[in-house]
Amino acid sequence: MILVDTGPLVALFDPRDGQHSRAASVLKILTDRLCTTVPVLTEVFHMLQPHSIGSDRVREFVARGGIDVWFLDSAGLVRSFELMEQYADRPMDLADASVIVAAESWQTRKVFTLDRTDFAAYRIRRGHRLQTVEVIA
C-alpha cells in the first residue's frame, strides 16, 4: 500500500503543473495499491478548482478504482489533531496528518508526496516506536 499526498494528485491531473511529468513518471513505476484520504481529496479539489479538467480527471480516477479512499473515524480524527499539535512548528495540516494516521492504521511507511521536507520530519507510530516515512517522490 502506498499512501498518496495532495501534491502528486494535483500534478498528475493538471498537465500545466510544473511537477506533472515527474509525478506521471513515478506513477508508472508504482506497483503497490494506492490509497489517499478524504482530507487529501478535499485539498486536491480546492487546488484544482471544482469545474476544471483536472478535477474531472481526479473524480474519474477515484470512481474507476485507480485509488482507494480512506475515511477518518473519530479515533483517527483525534489522532490527526494530536499530530497537528505535535508538529505545529512545521505546521502540519489535516491532510498531512490524515496521511500519517492512515499509515499507522494500514501499517505502511510508503508515501507518494512532493513534500519531501515535511514528510521526512514526520514519524509513524508503531506501538512505542516511531518510524520514518518512506518518501516516494
Your description of this structure?
- With 137 residues, the protein is α/β, with parallel strands linked by helices.
- It has one domain (2-136): Rossmann fold, CATH 3.40.50.1010.
- Helix content is 53%, strand content 18%.
- The protein has 7 helices and 7 strands; from the N terminus they run E-H-H-E-H-H-E-H-H-E-H-E-E-E.
- The chain has helices at residues 6-13, 20-29, 38-48, 53-63, 74-86, 94-106, 116-121; strands at 2-4, 34-37, 68-70, 110-112, 123-126, 129-132, 134-136.
- The strands form 2 sheets. A 5-stranded parallel sheet has the order 3-2-1-4-7.
- Helix 1 (6-13) packs across helix 3 (38-48), helix 1 packs across helix 4 (53-63) and helix 5 (74-86) crosses helix 6 (94-106).
- The longest helix is centred in the middle third of the chain and has 13 residues, at 74-86.
- It is globular.
Secondary-structure element sequence?
Answer: EHHEHHEHHEHEEE
Largest sheet: 5 strands, parallel
Q: Find the CATH topology.
A: Rossmann fold
Specify the helix fraction band.
40-55%
Q: Note the beta-strand portion.
A: 15-25%
CATH architecture: 3-Layer(aba) Sandwich
Q: Looking at this structure, what is the CATH superfamily?
A: 5'-nuclease
**Total strand count, please?**
7
Summarize the structure.
With 137 residues, the chain is α/β, with parallel strands linked by helices. 53% of the residues lie in helices and 18% in strands. The chain has seven helices and seven strands; from the N terminus they run E-H-H-E-H-H-E-H-H-E-H-E-E-E.
SSE blueprint:
Elements: E1 2-4, H1 6-13, H2 20-29, E2 34-37, H3 38-48, H4 53-63, E3 68-70, H5 74-86, H6 94-106, E4 110-112, H7 116-121, E5 123-126, E6 129-132, E7 134-136
Parallel strand pairs: 1-2, 1-4, 2-3, 4-7
Antiparallel strand pairs: 5-6
Helix pairs in contact: 1-2, 1-3, 1-4, 3-6, 5-6
